[in-house]
Amino acid sequence: MKIALDPTPFHHSHSLLEFPKVVADLGYKYMQMTPHADFIPFFNHPKADDELVGQLKKACRDAGIEIASVLPVLRWSGPDEDAREAAVRYWKRAIQITVDLGVGTMNTEFSGRPEKAEESERAFYRSMEELLPIIEREGIDLLIDPHPDDFVEEGLAAIRMIRGVNSRNVGMVYVASHSFHMQNPALDIMRAAGDKLRLVHVADTMDHHASHGLRYITNPPGNPVRVHQHLKIGDGDVNWDEFFGGLKEIGFLDRENTVMVSSVFAENEKAEEVSRYQLETMKQYVQKVSL
Length: 291
Hints:
Layout: E1 2-5, H1 19-25, E2 30-33, H2 50-63, E3 66-70, H3 81-100, E4 105-109, H4 117-138, E5 141-145, H5 155-165, E6 170-175, H6 186-193, E7 197-202, H7 210-213, H8 240-249, E8 259-262, H9 271-290
Parallel strand pairs: 1-2, 1-8, 2-3, 4-5, 5-6, 6-7, 7-8
Helix pairs in contact: 1-2, 3-4, 6-8, 8-9
């Protein structure tokens, strides 16, 4: 298992090519590349050319770290056909960038729209028909997160969608801070996913169902919003003993092709302190459940 840092909290204080040194200085050996204006931005064509990709690869080598995963977020399941076709083109470039970086894992979101779930499912499988041959040819591990406000938000439903692709190259992401949107208990999802679960994001969140649904209040009541946070471990309601215990039970912690990512986005003003805390706390939980 690789333990990686998502450098999103450092996007406004450091340049893209400074991320590897930041990650190394914080004690991590691996980094996850998430959407960035100079790399693969949200929803649009990748902006990294071959020269920048080479510079990033060298920066990682110089810092003594590796990129564990590349995370594009594109509208590949969008019910709008023009947007979906564009997303497939963007995906092809994102895959090439990943291959050129020497990275074998990509993770992403289902995307699409929950109010148009049937149309989005058709779009998802249509995109996969075109992308899957490339993914399999390049040996990419493509892992998908049922993100709040995607057309697939529930954990077991996500596993069914992934099974439907019918490829060993496609698996699941479990984001701990999405736990209370996934409908099903964490252990049930992990056990059902088995070795399809190959990447997790570690961040805490409050249970928005708590206090009779009044933990968060939106006005007017009944707004179709999805509320969650990316807090450091211990600042929310996620059951971390269950989370890490479940990962141990399904063999996640003992496999070479799995990635555990610290993805705290709520405390940029303490990003260095929080990143070190996350690394130490994740290691402590891994050791605890491995005894």
